Amino acid sequence: MKHFLIALSFVFTGTLFAQNSNTISGELFDAELENTPLAFAEVLIKETGEKTLTNAEGSFKLNATQNTDYTLVFSFAGYDNKEVSIKTASKGNKTLKVMLHAKTISFEDLAMALAKAENKTTTPNN
């Protein structure tokens, strides 16, 4: 009987915690390349530090608490980071579709970066 009560308390506690959690899921796409999924991009919940990577289809899933405001940060090499503010619902899950734009670089920025790289390779070490 004692083991039954202990098992029942674990089930009851697990049910309570399960009722307070939601899922934030969605898909991440390249805005310029006909909505091509961005595989292995990082998705971060700014407030908790929890993060994940998108899968090969650009999909992601994170656990979240109900009725909480979050800022999601999406990042991928060569793209501008994007922050999205959301509030989880008291019931149900949140699904997002997010587009990232490729970073742009001006000719002047490129020329300065090349000049710095050239100076590093031609400067003798003393």
Descriptive notes:
- This is TonB-dependent receptor.
- InterPro entries: CarboxyPept-like_regulatory.
- Keywords: Signal.
- Residues 1-18 form the signal peptide.
- The protein contains 2 helices and 8 strands, in the order αββββββββα.
- It is an alpha+beta fold and 126 residues long.
- It has one domain (21-122): Carboxypeptidase-like, regulatory domain (Immunoglobulin-like), CATH 2.60.40.
- Strand 3 (42-45) and strand 4 (51-53) form a beta hairpin.
- Mean pLDDT is 83; it is low at 10-18.
Layout of strands and helices, then pairs:
Blueprint: H1 2-19, E1 21-30, E2 36-37, E3 42-45, E4 51-53, E5 59-65, E6 69-75, E7 82-87, E8 94-100, H2 107-122
Parallel strand pairs: 1-8
Antiparallel strand pairs: 1-2, 1-5, 3-4, 3-6, 6-7
Q: How would you briefly describe this protein structure?
A:
The chain is an alpha+beta fold and 126 residues long.
- Stretches where pLDDT is under 50 for at least 5 consecutive residues are 10-18
Question: What global shape is seen?
Answer: elongated
> Do you know the CATH topology?
Immunoglobulin-like
How would a textbook summarize the main sheet?
Answer: 4 strands, mixed
CATH superfamily: Carboxypeptidase-like, regulatory domain
Gyration radius (Cα, Å) is 22 Å
Succession of helices and strands: HEEEEEEEEH
Q: Number of domains in the coordinates?
A: 1
Helix content: 25-40%
Number of strands: 8
Strand content: 35-45%
* Overall pLDDT: 83
Structural class: alpha+beta
CATH top level is Mainly Beta
**CATH architectural type:** Sandwich
Give me the number of helical elements: 2
For the termini, the CA-CA separation is 80 Å
InterPro entries: CarboxyPept-like_regulatory (IPR008969)
Keywords: Signal
Signal peptide: 1-18
Protein name: TonB-dependent receptor
